[in-house]
Amino acid sequence: MEVINALGRRKAAVARVFVSEGNGQIVINKKDLATYFPQETLQYIVKQPLNTLGVTEKYDIKVNLDGGGYKGQAEALRLAIARALVKINPEDKPALKAEGFMTRDPRVVERKKPGRPKARKRFQFSKR
Predict the structure, then answer these.
(1) Cβ atoms within 10 Å of 13's Cβ, excluding its own
(2) What is the pTM of this model?
(3) Which of 65, 89, 68, 61 is nearest to 5 (CA)?
(4) Cα 39 to Cα 18, 42, 45, distances in angstroms
(5) Rounded CA gap, 13 and 70, in Å?
(6) What domains, with CATH codes, occur in the chain?
(7) Distance separating alpha carbons of residues 19 and 21, to the nearest angstrom
(8) Of 16, 18, 81, 123, which residue is most buried, by most CB within 10 angstroms?
(9) Are 57 and 23 a contacting pair, CB within 8 Å?
(10) What is the pLDDT of residues 53-67, one digit of tens each?
């Protein structure tokens, strides 16, 4: 099997994933998954598509992660892995879609508007 690549985005985070046959090793920016994401919940988020299909030990995944915070990066990586798994086997798409792993979350930070302290917050109104 050749290397399959996919892209996942969430907020400001971009995950480029390269999937090949192997023994379940996930390397993110030349670091191990447990080193890059020390929190158990984030590791769980990353592995969700693999656990859903039961192929955790079947593929080696190399990742380039850039931008955003750790939560956004983990969710971008989840989307990228799901997209790569669908490229490998298109029959897996309904199972991943039912769990919501194939949907790109479009929510991003709203820009700051001029004449306001934040995006929607207004300065205190003074009558006199």
Answers:
(1) 21
(2) 0.90
(3) 61
(4) 23, 6, 10
(5) 9
(6) 4-99 (3.30.230.10)
(7) 7
(8) 81
(9) yes
(10) 999 889 999 999 999
| Beta-carbon contacts of residue 13 (< 8 Å; ≥ 6 apart) | 65, 66, 67, 68, 69, 72, 73, 75, 76
What CA–CA distance (Å, rounded) separates 47 from 24?
Answer: 10
Residue type, 27: V
Q: Are 50 and 99 in contact (CB under 8 A)?
A: no
C-alpha distances in angstroms, 22 versus 13, 36, 110, 123, 125? 26, 20, 41, 57, 62
pLDDT in the model for residue 128:
87
Q: What is residue 16's predicted lDDT score, i.e. its pLDDT?
A: 96
Q: Which two tokens stand for residue 34?
A: 């447990």
Residue 24 in contact with residue 81, Cβ under 8 Å? no
Distances, alpha carbon 44 to alpha carbons 11, 78, 82, 123, in Å? 19, 10, 14, 42
CA 6, CA 38: separation in Å to the nearest integer? 24
